[in-house]
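Task 17 of the worksheet. Students: predict the tertiary structure of the chain below and write it out as structure tokens. Keep your answer in the requested format; marks are given for formatting as well as content.
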Amino acid sequence: MSRPPDDDEFAELVHAAWPSLYRTAFLLIGDRSEAEDLVQTALAKTYAAWGSVRSVEAAPAYARAVLHNTAASWFRKRSWRNERPTETLPETAIETDPSDRPAVLAALGQLPKRQRAVVVLRYYEDLSVADTARALGCSEGTVKSQTFDALSRLRTILGDAVVADALTQDLP
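Model answer:
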């Protein structure tokens, strides 16, 4: 039986996993500072349960699961992300860019939070329908219907060719 990881190994996990966790959090949340908060919260929860992590090899997957669960709990809170103070009103027009990447990020930002989460977990994180349902705390049918609705919306915004290509790209 393997021993639980120690604090030095947790520090190594943070340094190794941060970029990947941050990219996933950014795609889920759509805001850089809130993505950082999500990753920090997930890593704090991971550290609180560090003694129950069975091995160093299991730690990145455990931290990723905590990130998904934390994001799902944030989505369930009604007050989360309702309004943000700003000095200037955001532009209503979609920026055009010759690259698909900014367009995909902008289109993801237009999806409702549950649809965005499903698309990110299914196509960026490459989770199965069952794993996505577990991560978001919903049924597999909800994942399927949210995926269908999200991809329909993305096709409307971006076009069929862009959606197929863009969901397989390595985003920030």
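Marker's comment: The chain has a mean pLDDT of 82. The CA atoms of residues 155 and 164 lie 9 Å apart.
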